Amino acid sequence: MKRKVLSFIALSLLAAACHPAKQPTLAPETIYQEPGVSVITSFFNNRQQTISTLYGNAEALKAARGDSNMVAGAVYRLITWKQKGNPLWFGGNINGAVKTIESIQVSGDGVTHYALVSGVATGAPAERTKFVLGLKASVFP
């Protein structure tokens, strides 16, 4: 009798462990994809509850690593998301819904063109351009 009960418990535990594990899925609003751009730097503002990432084309990335961001043909995209709690990591924040998308292009004669692609402006175009062009590239090993 004892052997039957132990066998039943062992088989029950074995059967309970044989279901596929749940895989976490990323929320679709956390991903920004645009062909031909790379991450230059990222930062967060806990006071405003935002996370921002600066993307750029090859010219912008090269310029951000150097002394001057005024390289002809450089294209910058600053994406700002609202923060939301990470459901898989207690106390961590991840990207939520996109708050703003800002674009800056440097023309051949060194003139910058600012455009607010979506969202609400957080400052004057000249002020935002100066801020974005002042950001330096993160150092990746």
UniProtKB/TrEMBL annotation:
This protein's UniProt keywords: Signal
Q: Which residues form the signal peptide?
A: 1-21
Q: Which domain of life is it from?
A: Bacteria
Q: Which PROSITE patterns does the record cross-reference, listed alphabetically? A: PROKAR_LIPOPROTEIN (PS51257)
Protein name (record):
Lipoprotein
Species assigned in the record: Chitinophaga hostae
Its taxonomic path starts at: Bacteria, Pseudomonadati, Bacteroidota, Chitinophagia, Chitinophagales
